[in-house]
Amino acid sequence: MLGMWQESIRSNQAALSAAKGYVHALDFMVYAYLQLAQDVEAKREVERSMELQKTQGALGTANPTGAVLVGYTALSAIPARYAIERGAWAEAARLQPLRSTPVADSITYFARAMGCVRSGDLAAARKNIEQLQQIEESLLHVKDEYWAQQVQIQRNAAAAWVAHGEGKKEAALKLMRTAVELEDGSEKHVAMENLLWPMRELLGDLLLEVNEPALALREYEASLQSARNRYRGFYGAAKAAQGSRDLEKARTYYEKLVALCSNADTQRPELAEAKRYLARK
């Protein structure tokens, strides 16, 4: 992703003008709005996607490429993004799978698992990880190795955070690094070219949680090279730099976050924190 969020919004609005049911374009718009902290606009598109769920049978014809899977993954990704990008963990934990395709449902189970574990409900997180395991095995059974690996990435990441919740630092970091390595070695697919959550950024989040800010900063900065201008990436890098006593770099990333959200329609806590930090002398 190039991180050109306003351009992405405009181009996908044009695509939707030509094909009103093109839910893949809606997914990109929601993602872009969320990076800009324009949550009111994002919510409007989430509601629009919910209306499109009622016409799932026509997704192939609504998509200019004719690819049905793209529509299903987008419909699952949109509400998952809306919860994750805002750090609304309880909301993520309540997401319901659409029961459309295993690939699309895995997106929901991953978001649910992360929502549960970040809300402190490890038992519920494990149940969602079990669902991911079943989907992975079913995909392997039909020799769909690509999507089985994508689910494996999700499963490892969620399991890493459960291990962290259990106080197993080394196991957690090993699982999370495995997820990163698998994602780094995997090609993107048109059905999820806009990944739900960069694994390297999520590794940075975990490193911050285990009080390794210098290592976290390295991962955030590496993630921002490929997943550019991400709200959570800038915030994570700022927090990691702050924890590493690199105050100049912390200020730089907080400035980037505030500039990114210059037209925000929501006052998120991370943005308020960035403004407080920058207000210091």
Any overview of this molecule?
The protein has a domain at about 210-280: Alpha Horseshoe (Serine Threonine Protein Phosphatase 5, Tetratricopeptide repeat). Helix content is about 75%, strand content about 0%. The chain contains 15 helices and no strands. With about 280 residues, the chain is mostly helical. The longest helix has 21 residues, at about 145-165.
Q: Could you state the order of secondary-structure elements as H and E?
A: HHHHHHHHHHHHHHH
What low-confidence regions span 5 or more consecutive residues with pLDDT below 50? 60-66
The Rg value, from CA coordinates, equals 18 Å
Averaged pLDDT: 92
State the CATH class of the domain at 212-281. Answer: Mainly Alpha
Q: Describe the main β-sheet briefly.
A: none
- Shape, per Cα inertia axes: globular
| Ends apart, CA distance between termini | 35 Å
Supply the number of helical segments: 15
Q: Tell how many strands the DSSP assignment holds.
A: 0
Keyword list:
281 residues; 15 helices; globular; mainly alpha; Serine Threonine Protein Phosphatase 5, Tetratricopeptide repeat
